[in-house]
Amino acid sequence: MGKEFQHYIFRLFMLTAVCAALLAASPVSAEHNRKVLVLHSYHKGLGWTDSITEGIEAGMSRSEEPVEIHYEYMDTKRVFDDTHLENLARLLSHKYKNIDFTGIVSSDDHAFRFLLSHHQEIFPETPIVFCGVNGFRPEMIEGNPWFTGVIEALSFVETLEAALRIEPHIKTVYGVVDDTVTGRSNKKSLLDAMKQFQGRLEVKFLENRTMEEMKSVTAELPEDSVLVYLSFTTDSAGQKFSLEEGADSITMTANRPMYSFWDFHLGHGIIGGRLTHGYTQGETAAGLLLRTLKGEAPGDIPVIRESPNQYIFDHVVMARFGIDADRVPENSMVLNLPVSFLEQNRELIQKFGIVVFCLVLVIVVLSYNFVKLRLADESVRRSEERFREITELLPETIFEVNIDRELVFINKSGKEQFQIEEGEVERGFKFYSLFAAKEHERLDQRFKQFMDGKTLGLQEYIGVRGNGEEFPLIARSVPTIRDGKVVGIRGLLMDMSEKNQLEEQIRNAQRMESIGTLAGGIAHDFNNLLMGIQGRASLALTDTTSSVPVREHLEGIEEYVRSASNLTKQLLGFARSGTYDLKPTDINRLISNSSQMFGRTRKELQMLTRLEPDVWALEVDRSQIEQVLLNLYINSWQAMSGNGTITVKTENVVVDESEGEILSVRGGPYVRITVTDTGNGINREVKEHIFEPFFSTKERGRGTGLGLASAYGIIKNHKGSIYVVSEEGEGASFQIHLPARMVHIEEEAEADERLITGEGRLLLVDDEQMVLDVSEGLLSQLGYTVYTASNGGEALRIFEEHKGEICLVVLDMIMPGMSGEETFHRLREIDPDVRVLLSSGYSADGRAASLIGEGCNGFIQKPFDLQTLSRKVREVLDEVC
Fold first, then answer.
1. Confidence of residue 567 (pLDDT cuts 50, 70, 90)
2. Does 149 lie in the same domain as 160?
3. Are 671 and 738 in contact (CB under 8 A)?
4. Model-level pTM?
5. Could you tell me where the beta strands, DSSP code E, fall in 157-271?
6. 445 shares its domain with 489
7. Domain identity same for 519 and 449
8. Are residues 288 and 250 in the same domain?
C-alpha cells in the first residue's frame, strides 16, 4: 500500500508541475476575457430566477480564468406573445452584434425555446447550456451540436424513501391533488413511483373536494400516514389558489406532515423532501458551461437527465410533529435549526480552540508521516466517492470489470436498465450476463484485445435485461491499467432502444404526412368526379317530369353523391384540408342538435348533456365539428354494443403554459368538450393507434378506419387538441379543447331550397373539362350567359375582352400552372371591383378563407347541386346589385 501510494503521489506531483509550467508559459491576455450571457425566461426578483442566478455565479466562480457575465431577462411571466418575442430577438441581435460570447446559459423553458429558434441568427455557433427545463424531449436538440444542459425532474421515489426513513411506521400515502392537467400528470407520476413500494406503502388520493372539505379530511388522518402535495390550485367548487396558498391552507390544520417536491413550498407548512432547487440547477449548468470553455463540444456533453435535486427539510415543521433532525437522509439541508451551544459561546470556544490547536500542532509534528499517509488515503477515498457520485448522475450505464470478467461496479442507471437487484453485484455477477448469448464469443475476442492494452471504438451489441428482454446497445470501453498492468475494463453502455423508437416515430410521421397528402389529393380529384355526376344528374332532373319513373333513379344518384361527398369530407379532415367556412358558433346549441338527432336514430341509447350555461363562443366550421361529434357518437355506440349511456359535457377552461405543452396547444381560453361512454374501454395498444387512418378494431365492413383520424385532423386544423382517457373495461372519455373567441354569434337563417334563376354574363374557370361542361350546363339552365376557360391565362384573356360585361367569375382554387389564387390577384389588377366566387374540392392550407378576407365574395365546395349553385350565385350578384 505504501509503495503504491508513493508512486501515485509522484505521478500526481509531476502532472501538477507540468500543468503549472504550461499555465505560466501561456498567460491569459486581459483583452481576451471570457464573456458569458445568462438569458432568464422570467424577471429579476422572482425567487426561482434569483436562486438560479446565485447557483450560476457560484459555479462560474470556480473558473480558472476571468469570466465577464451579462444578464438578460425575457420577462415572460408578465408578457408573452409573438410580438414580444420578435422584438426581443431584434433587441438582442442589435445589442450584442459586436460581442462574441464564449457561452450562454438559459434558464427555464421560454429562454430555451427562444434560443432553439434564434440561436444561429443572433448567437451563431455559440455553446448553449440550458437549465430549469421540464418540457425537454431529446428530439428538440437532435442534430444540433451546440446545446446541452440539465433538465428539471421531480424526485417522487427519493422523497417517499425519505418519508419512510423519517417515520418507518407509515403505511399510507395521501396524495393531495386537483382535477387539472398538472394534477392529473403528477398523479400518474406518483402512481408510477408507488410501484417500487408495493407491499410497503399504499396510496390514496384526496381529490374532487372543496378547500374546506380538504382541510376537514386532512385534520383527521391516521397516525400511520403522511401527505404529499401534488397540486391543489383549483378545488371542486372552482375556487383558485396560488401554489403557496394551497399549501398554507392545508398544512395549517393537517394532523400529519406533508411532503412536497418543490423548494418554493418551504416556509408554507411542508416538512420538506427531495426538492427541485433553482440554485442547484444554476450551479450544475455553470459546471457544464465551464467544460465547454475548456474546449469540450456541447454536443459531446450528455444532457443531465437526473435533475440535481436536494434533500431540504424545515426544522420548525419537524418539531411540530416531534421528528428528530437526525432522522433525515445524509447530506440533507435542515432549515431553521435552533442556535447551538457553539453559536452562543463562540468567543469562549475560540479561546479554548487556540489551546487545543497548540496541543494538536505538537501531535501533528510528532506524527507527520502517519498523518500524511492518512490524508492521502482520504484523498483517494474522496476521489472514489466523487467518481461514484458523478456516475450516479449519468443516464448511461457506467461499469467496471475485473480480470476475471466479474462486475466490480455498476451505477444506478445500469442497475435499472439491466434490472439488477440490490446486492447481486457484491455476490459476484458475470459481466457477460448483461449481453445476449450470441454475443459472448465476440465479447471473448474483445476482452483479449483489451488485455493486450488495445482501446477500441464504439461497438454495437445486443443487451439483455433481467427479465430476458433483449435490446440494442452501444459500448465504449478502455482497459484499466495499474502499475503498467491491465487489471480490468472500464466503460459505458448506452441503451439505443429509445433512439431507435424515436427514429421509427419520425418515419411513421413522414408516412402519415405522405398519406395525408395523398388523401387530400384523392378527395379533391374524387370531388371533381362527383361534380360531374352531380351536375349531369341535376341537368337530367330539370328535363324530367315528376311522372317519369327515371326521376326516382336520378334523385337516388344525387343522394349517393351526397353520401360519397361525406366520405371525401372525412378524407379532407384527416388530410387537414378543408376548413373554409369559419363562423362564430354557440357550441352548446350545436351539441344539443347533434345529440338529439343521433339519439332519435338510436332509441336504445341514453344521450345526456351537461352543458355550461355561459360557455364561450367558438369560431369553427360547423359542419366539420358536427362530423367530429357524429364520429365520436358512432364510436361510443359501437363500443357499447348498442346499449349504454353517452354523456356530452362542455366547460370553459383556461390552459396555462405547462398544460399547453402537454396538449400541444398555446395557452389561453378554451372550451373543453368531453364525450364519455359506458362501453368496454380501450386497451393501451389500441390507444396508441386510435387516431391513425385506416386503423380499426371492428370486423371487416363495419368501418373505414377514417372516423377518428378525420376527427383528429379537423380538431388540429382548428388549432385545438383531442385525446382519449380510458382503461380496458371502464368506458372511454374523449376530450376536445377548442380555442375560444370573443365574438358575437348571429342566428343562422334557414337554407333556401328554391331554384333561383337569373340573368347576366358569367365567366367559369376550371381545369377539368368535365366540371366545365356540367357547370356551364347548370348555369345556362339557370338563365345565365356563360364564358368558359380551362386555365388562368385563358380566363384573363376572356375577362379582358369582355371587361365591363362579366358580372361574376366562378374560379377553381386548384389549377396547374397559374393557380386560382394567382388568377384572382391578376383579375383584381384588371378590375379592382371584380366579383369572384371560389370553387374547389378542398381548401389547401385554409387559403380559401384567406382569399375571402382579401376580397373574394364567396366559396362553394364541389360537388354542388343546381339549388346550391343557384343560391350561391344569387347571393353574390345581389351583393353587386
1. low
2. no
3. yes
4. 0.37
5. 172-177, 202-206, 225-231, 258-259
6. yes
7. no
8. no
Confidence grade of residue 804 (pLDDT, cut at 50, 70, 90): confident
DSSP state of 138: G
> Cα(260)–Cα(155) distance, rounded to whole angstroms?
10
- Sign, CA dihedral 136-142-144-149, equals positive
Residues 301 and 315 in one domain: no
pLDDT tens digits along 666-683:
889 999 999 999 888 887
Q: Strand, coil or helix: what is 291?
A: helix
Co-location of 372 and 462 in the same domain: no
Give the span between the Cα atoms of 707 and 722, in whole angstroms: 13
Of residues 19, 60, 21, the one with CA closest to residue 38 = 60
- Beta pairing class for 485-495 and 397-402: antiparallel
Position 703 scores a pLDDT of 47
Q: What is the mean pLDDT of residues 142-155?
A: 90
Q: Cα 359 to the chain's mean position, in Å? A: 64
How many residues in the chain?
881
Nearest to 301 by CA among 112, 146, 496: 146
Q: For the chain, first and last CA: distance in Å?
A: 106
Q: What is the three-class DSSP state of 511?
A: helix
By the 8 A CB rule, do 729 and 773 touch? no
Using alpha carbons, select from 291, 303, 304, 302 the residue that is nearest to residue 476: 302
Q: Are strands 459-464 and 310-314 parallel, antiparallel or unpaired?
A: unpaired
Print the domain residue range for 798: 509-549+750-881
C-alpha dihedral sign at 547, 553, 555, 556: positive
A 10 A CB-CB count for 11 gives: 10
- 866-880 and 497-542 helices cross at what angle (nearest 10)? 90
Query: 3-class DSSP state for residue 47?
Result: helix
**Is residue 269 domain-shared with residue 363, that is, in the same domain?**
no
Are residues 172 and 143 both part of a single domain?
no
Return the C-alpha cell found at 577: 384540408
Per-residue pLDDT of 587-631, as tens digits, reads 999 999 888 888 877 878 888 999 999 999 998 888 788 888 988
Is 358 among the domain residues?
Answer: yes
10 belongs to a structural domain: no
CATH number for 444: 3.30.450.20
Q: Judge whether 670 and 699 are in contact, CB under 8 Å.
A: no
